[in-house]
Structures are given as C-alpha cells and as structure tokens.
UniProtKB/TrEMBL annotation:
It comes from the Bacteria. InterPro entries: PhoU-like_sf, Put_Phosphate_transp_reg, UPF0111_domain. Transmembrane segments: none annotated. It comes from Streptomyces hirsutus. This is DUF47 family protein. Belongs to the UPF0111 family. Pfam families: PhoU_div (PF01865). Gene3D superfamilies: Phosphate transport system protein phou homolog 2, domain 2.
C-alpha cells in the first residue's frame, strides 16, 4: 500500500459498510418474498421500499462527503463508482419485488429461488468486504468469488429464460416473469460491478 503523508477522510469506509449492510437487508427481504403468500407480499414490498430509500440516503451521504472533502481515501471517481454500483443493487432488488406485487404474480418459476440465493450470498460477501477497504486485506478472494457467483447467476438466468419460453406459460405471463428474472440478473451484474471497482481500487493502492 502506498505511504501517505497526508491524513485521509475515513468516514467513507463507515458509509460504504452501512450501504452494504443495507443491501444484506434487501436480499433477505427478497428471500422472504419467496416464501410469502400473495396477500403478504405488499407488506414486504413496503419494507423493501423503505430499505431502498435508506440506500438512497446512504448514497447521497457519500456524494455529499465526496463533494465536501479535500482529501479522500482513494480516487474520487472510484468512490463515486462504488457508491453508485451499491445503489444500483438496491434499486434492482426493490424493482424486482415491486414487479412481483404489481403484476400479481401468484407463483414464481422454479429457478428464481436460485437467483435470489446467489444474491443473498453476494450481499453477505460484499458486506464482509467493505470494512477491508481500510487495509485492502483479504479482498482478492472477495472479487474472485463474486465473479464466480455472477457466472453462476448467468447460467441460472439462461435456464430460466429457456423455461419461460418452453410453452408452459402464455405470452403475457412470459413477459411479466421475464422482466422479473431480468431485473434479478441485473442485480447480480451490479454486484460484479462493485467487485470490479474494489479490484480497481486495490490495484491502485498497491
């Protein structure tokens, strides 16, 4: 790690950790949605919406700190990219839950549970990794595993699409379900964007 003669703003680390912890909350709400009866999904959607708003607040706090800090722990563009990608994850997860409720989906197709399990694991790994930005320790394993999980998510997504187009569902239902599984795939991609940004930061700081 490069030796620095100037002090650095350290509150960013805490804000990134808080943002990632909030994503874990969102991923657990996704998992809760899987086992919920249709009438209970609206209440879960409300809690997810509140978590998404909390994520927005965390992102705005990071941007405000970035704009008001003379010295930052790493490059400003990387701070912005990391905060934005974390925010994207919450946005996609909230959108998926909202679509399930709005479309009145009674039964999610087999395979969505696997998508969500991948997201939960990625959320946990991301939350564990954020505090390590202080020291840049034990981050290589993190981004390698996130990339592996994203590849797994791609495979699950392709199988889901094949299932949706198998003829089991009518055309309107296919459109509804495809939008949901696509958004969940976007969430997995966003986790990879976070990991790639962390890798970029670690390389620059080495």
């Amino acid at each position: 790690m490069r030796f620095r003669l100037t002090p650095r703003e350290t509150s960013f680390y805490d804000m990134f950790a808080a943002s990632a912890d909030n994503i874990v909350t969102g991923s657990k709400l996704l998992m809760e949605l899987l086992g919920a009866d249709t009438p209970d999904r609206g209440e879960i959607a409300e809690r997810m919406r509140a978590a998404e708003h909390a994520g927005d607040d965390a992102t705005h706090a990071i941007f405000h700190q970035l704009n008001s800090s003379f010295i930052t722990p790493f490059d400003r563009e990387d701070i912005y990219s990391l905060a934005s990608s974390l925010d994207d994850i919450m946005d996609f997860m909230e959108e998926a839950v909202d679509l399930v409720v709005l479309y009145k989906v009674e039964e999610l197709p087999k395979g969505v549970d696997q998508q969500i399990e991948v997201l939960v694991r990625a959320a946990e790994l991301t939350a564990e990794a954020m505090p390590n930005l202080r020291t840049m320790d034990s981050l290589t394993e993190y981004w390698i595993e996130i990339n592996r999980l994203e590849n797994q998510a791609d495979q699950i997504h392709r199988k889901l699409l094949a299932h949706l187009f198998s003829g089991k569902y009518d055309a309107i239902e296919v459109l509804k379900l495809k939008q949901i599984v696509d958004v969940l795939e976007e969430a997995a991609d966003a986790f990879e964007h976070v990991a790639n940004t962390v890798e970029t930061i670690a390389v620059k700081e080495s």
